[in-house]
Design brief:
231 residues, mainly alpha, Growth Hormone, Chain: A, 8 helices, 4 strands, globular
Length: 231
């Protein structure tokens, strides 16, 4: 087994703070893409339906919009596969290379900013890849499913856990507040992304990409400073 483990384990508060920051940034990026290109890159449920709809509307022919949506879907799956390859475990563990992964996500988004004008297709593909990477970084923490690029599952968990607690099941309060606050962070990110794009003309993807890079570097440094113990 791994001979070294971090003495300081992930706490619900740390997990929630990190998750909310990731959800906020992903939602801001997604809002920017929806405004500028009309494509969602952080969640693909609607996009999968739109692919078939656009194909039917085009009389069975492959439309340009369907192609963009399809590339976004493939990119998202590819990004999730990338996290699976490098993180190789769905449960949150501090020893895994989350910092480098977040830096990589930021660099992909920065690349999107510079490709946006010349190649919308490649831009959507790369941005969806980044979101897929983020969403698959850690999918479980103490029985709670973590999602930071869309809220359908979060709202489902929120309703289910709330109902179970009302029924009298011993559900810890933080397991309810986690999906609630992640959903609020996602909504706040979308509002911020829209305001920055429409009102301030700020390059949202570039700013968010830079925030990912900085956050990933900070976490990588902090993780190295954490005390370690022999397992």
């Amino acid at each position: 087994m791994n001979p070294e483990t971090h003495a300081i384990q992930a706490r619900p508060g740390w997990v929630l703070l990190g998750g909310c920051m990731l959800a906020f940034l992903a939602s801001a990026v997604n809002a920017d893409f929806m405004i500028r290109i009309g494509v969602s890159v952080s969640h693909l449920t609607g996009d999968l339906s739109r692919i078939t709809m656009e194909t039917v509307k085009a009389g069975g022919h492959w439309s340009a919009e369907a192609a963009v949506l399809c590339f976004s879907l493939i990119g998202f799956v590819g990004g999730a596969a990338t996290s699976g390859f490098f993180i190789h475990h769905p449960t949150l563990e501090l020893g895994r290379p989350y910092g480098r992964s977040v830096i990589a996500i930021g660099l992909l988004l920065i690349l999107c900013h510079f490709l946006a004008e010349s190649s919308p297709l490649a831009t959507c593909f790369i941005a969806a890849w980044a979101c897929g990477m983020q969403n698959a970084l850690a999918t479980r923490y103490h029985g709670v499913i973590l999602r930071t690029t869309h809220i359908t599952g979060l709202l489902t968990d929120l309703g289910q856990l709330l109902g179970m607690r009302l029924r009298g099941h011993p559900i810890e309060l933080w397991k309810i507040t986690t999906p609630l606050l992640l959903s609020i962070a996602f909504a706040s990110g979308a509002a911020t992304g829209a305001i920055l794009n429409l009102k301030a003309n700020v390059p949202v993807t570039l700013v968010c990409g830079s925030a990912y890079v900085i956050g990933g570097i900070v976490w990588s440094i902090v993780k190295r400073l954490l005390p370690k113990t022999k397992a």
